[in-house]
Amino acid sequence: MRTSKLITISLLPELLEEAERLAKEEKRTRSEFFREAIRKYIEDKKWERLYRYGRMKAQEQGLTEADVERLVDEYRSERINVTVCIKDGLALCVHGFINQKNTEDSAG
After folding, report:
1. Which of 7, 24, 58, 84 could form a disulfide with 63 if both were Cys (CB 3.0 to 4.6 A apart)?
2. Does residue 108 surpass a pLDDT of 60?
3. Could you give the percent of the chain with pLDDT greater than 90?
4. Interhelix angle for 13-25 vs 30-60, to 10°?
5. Count of domains forming the chain
6. pLDDT tens for residues 70-90?
7. Whether the Cβ atoms of residue 100 and residue 78 lie closer than 8 Å to each other
8. By three-state DSSP, how is residue 91 classified?
9. Across residues 23-41, what is the average pLDDT?
């Protein structure tokens, strides 16, 4: 049983020729080429929405692009990489980041 859906689309001849040329160059079928193009388009739209949302929130708070970069750098500098291994019969290792500021607050 087919898991994909068959569709029909209309393209200008020169657009189809270019798509077929690129698909052949990349050793892909026409279907693979168009599936990837659609996936990329959807991903790009998601990122566009995310950037738009971020710009809107930054504007609401009166932040400039430089402010955002500085805040991201400050946040990243507060994080430290940790590895925790539990013994007693269990070989479990957890890798990740913790916020250095929170560990200092709880330690003091």
Report:
1. 58
2. no
3. 46
4. 100
5. 1
6. 888 887 777 666 666 666 655
7. yes
8. coil
9. 96
Contact at 8 Å (CB) between 100 and 80? yes
Whether residue 1 is contained in a domain is answered as no
d(CA 80, CA 100): 6
- Rounded CA gap, 22 and 18, in Å? 6
CA end-to-end distance (rounded Å), the chain: 63
Instruction: Inform me whether the pLDDT recorded for 26 exceeds 80.
Output: yes
Q: Which domain holds residue 23?
A: 11-63
Write down the pTM of the prediction.
Answer: 0.59
Task: Evaluate if residue 107 carries a pLDDT over 60.
Answer: no
DSSP code for 89? T
- Chain-centroid distance of CA 78 in Å reads 23
107 in a structural domain: no
Which of 9, 13, 37 is closest to 23 using CA atoms?
37
